[in-house]
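Sequence design from tokenized structure. All designs in this work follow the same two-part layout: the structure record, then the generated sequence. An example of the structure record is given first.
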């Protein structure tokens, strides 16, 4: 990885904001991801994120922490937070903003135990594919304290495959419709394509049950998105 995401965060933090990130997927055209949004405060966050933060308790793991906005809010509430990200630039920014425990680390490298594990901003994306999802959920389960919880959000993007008559047009010979290739660029520089997974709630619920996790929908968002809570069965 070139860590384009991290470079953009560093630029913004240092006051060098001139361009936004540009994103696209294998089924959607280019769109901008405004850098200020990645530094939002609690009042600017979507309701799903606000609710996840309100529900957090105990020792918290913030997976894919980005610039650290979620971690900082939890720290201010007196919670013990560990923030991890695979972006070196993101960790540098999170630390500079005051996140006390931020590490350059992937989820599968984590070994501590937690009361709350947060995976926000389409947290299922980190699973990459439907096939890999049980492996990630098994690992998340291993990090939970007995009364712990995993708070994760995602979207059912089936609507993107509907035609004008409401018909579902995806090729049945392809993979699960929520598996996408994700593209990111910044100031003309392109990141290597990533696998990214949007997971509908029913599928998340079914897979969670197979690995020994209870899955409960906490809240529906405004655009086919939702917040779920996973706990030990």
């Amino acid at each position: 990885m070139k860590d384009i995401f991290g470079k953009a965060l560093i630029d913004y933090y240092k006051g060098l904001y001139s361009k936004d990130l540009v994103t696209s997927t294998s089924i959607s055209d280019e769109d901008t991801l405004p850098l200020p949004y990645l530094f939002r405060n609690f009042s600017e966050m979507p309701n799903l994120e606000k609710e996840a933060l309100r529900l957090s308790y105990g020792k918290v793991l913030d997976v894919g922490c980005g610039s650290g906005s979620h971690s900082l809010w939890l720290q201010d509430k007196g919670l013990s937070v560990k923030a991890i990200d695979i972006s070196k630039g993101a960790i540098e920014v999170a630390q500079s903003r005051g996140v006390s425990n931020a590490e350059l680390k992937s989820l599968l490298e984590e070994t501590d135990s937690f009361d709350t594990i947060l995976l926000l901003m389409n947290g299922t994306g980190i699973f990459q594919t439907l096939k890999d999802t049980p492996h990630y959920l098994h690992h998340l389960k291993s990090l939970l304290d007995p009364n712990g919880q995993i708070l994760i959000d995602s979207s059912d993007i089936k609507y993107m495959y509907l035609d004008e008559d409401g018909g579902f047009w995806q090729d049945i010979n392809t993979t699960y419709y929520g598996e996408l290739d994700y593209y990111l660029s910044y100031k003309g520089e392109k990141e290597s394509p990533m696998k990214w997974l949007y997971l509908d709630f029913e599928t998340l619920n079914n897979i969670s049950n197979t690995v020994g996790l209870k899955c409960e929908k906490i809240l529906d968002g405004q655009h086919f998105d939702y917040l779920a809570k996973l706990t030990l069965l």
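The helical segments are 4-13, 47-55, 69-76, 88-97, 133-142, 201-210. We note this feature because it recurs in several other targets discussed in the main text.
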